[in-house]
Amino acid sequence: MTPARDRKLRILMVAPTSFFADYGCHVRILEETRALQSRGHEVLICTYHNGNDVEGIPTHRTIDIPWRKRVVVGSSKHKLYLDAMLSFEVLRAIRRFKPDLIHAHLHEGALIGGMAGLLTRRPVVFDYQGSLTEEMLDHGFMRHDGKREWAMRRLERTIEWFPHLVITSSDNARCRLASSGYPDEKIMTVFDAVDTNRFSPTVMSPEERASLREELGIRPDQQVVGYLGLLAPYQGSDLLMEAARRIIEQRPETFFLIMGFPGNEDYHAEAVRTGIGGNTSFPGRISYREAHRYLALADVAVAPKMSLTEGNGKLYNYMSMGLPVVAFDAPANREILGDEGIYAEHGNVDQLTQHLLWCLENPESAREVGCQLRRRAVDHLSWDARIEELLDVYDRLMLETTP
């Protein structure tokens, strides 16, 4: 059989989410697609009706739902009918597009893609990005040790058997999946990556940087702590707000640029209520094409994500920008940042505060940490290397499923 890198494949990606929405798994889907296109492969993304089209990315959407325009983030009861509609559209797309393989994202995508693959005899690979049950627990969609959790874990394990192969984005995820009883030989790891040319410390001129700082209300003398991602308790946003309050009390020359959604208006109101409104900015959703410009304003980046099972894609962008990164000590974070990361004990706001203060009070040492992380990103985390690994997965998938 001709290797995937030497022929043109037609790949149907199943994305049960509001693609594109500038966060998390959306970035992985987008960058995988662009990398595949750069090698001459044809990709079609099947997704929900409510997302932003990206130029050059063929996208097939479900029919419009007038009462559901807002982006779906995480677990939601609305996903039940959205996924049912997506299942129908995936079958339509297979009939018209005639893909060589189905690349499914998230557990809902693995179920939809797996069933469609059985019906149409297409090989299926599952891009595993964390536990479905743990995500629902993180979002408060169910409580621990309840009957619903037991049922969801059974369903999750069942879904994972539909695809022919599973891709994990970290060794931590691979180990967690294998420890649940899934065959290790069916798991392949393809780490996340980053566009190190666009996410670069030299991306903005001093004049452009000064102009954007002024637009956001950042004084020339202020140091900036930057965050870019979803805003929610399971992302550590509440702990970040507490750390910001403590740091601003000690160092009024510090500014917190907290970028993302949803809930940015609520967090801004909390900042005003606690007296730090003048030292914070909550610009809301930042488009992915603008993310590098806003991150260029930061002196230090923070990643207080609480989940122990999901990846942490924002770290790649932080690293590539040459920023020192303070994060909670979690397996996925250590895998990405290595020894160059600055780690606080998981969930410990005191240590989070102390490590951020160290970066602010020792700017030269912090910059050196950022330079080391930049080198790590350039040497090991570019998409040029990752796409070869993904094509290896496709080769094995096609070889094992060809009669």
What does this entry show, briefly?
With 403 residues, this protein is an alpha/beta fold. The chain has 15 helices and 13 strands.
The quaternary state of the protein chains shown equals: single chain
- Average of the residue pLDDT scores: 91
Query: For the report, how would you describe the main beta sheet?
Result: 7 strands, parallel
Over all CA atoms, what is the radius of gyration?
Answer: 21 Å
* Helical content band: 40-55%
What features would you describe in this structure?
- The protein is an alpha/beta fold and 403 residues long.
- The model has no long low-confidence stretch (mean pLDDT 91).
- The strands form two sheets. Strands 3-2-1-4-5-6-7 form a seven-stranded parallel β-sheet, sandwiched between helices. A six-stranded parallel β-sheet has the order 10-9-8-11-12-13, with helices on both faces.
- Helices cover 45% and strands 15% of the residues.
List the helices and strands and how they pair.
Blueprint: E1 10-15, H1 24-38, E2 42-47, E3 59-61, H2 79-97, E4 101-105, H3 106-120, E5 124-128, H4 132-138, H5 147-159, E6 165-168, H6 171-179, E7 187-189, H7 206-215, E8 223-228, H8 237-250, E9 254-259, H9 264-273, E10 280-284, H10 291-295, E11 300-303, H11 314-320, E12 325-328, H12 331-337, E13 342-344, H13 349-361, H14 363-380, H15 383-401
Parallel strand pairs: 1-2, 1-4, 2-3, 4-5, 5-6, 6-7, 8-9, 8-11, 9-10, 11-12, 12-13
Helix pairs in contact: 2-3, 8-13, 13-14
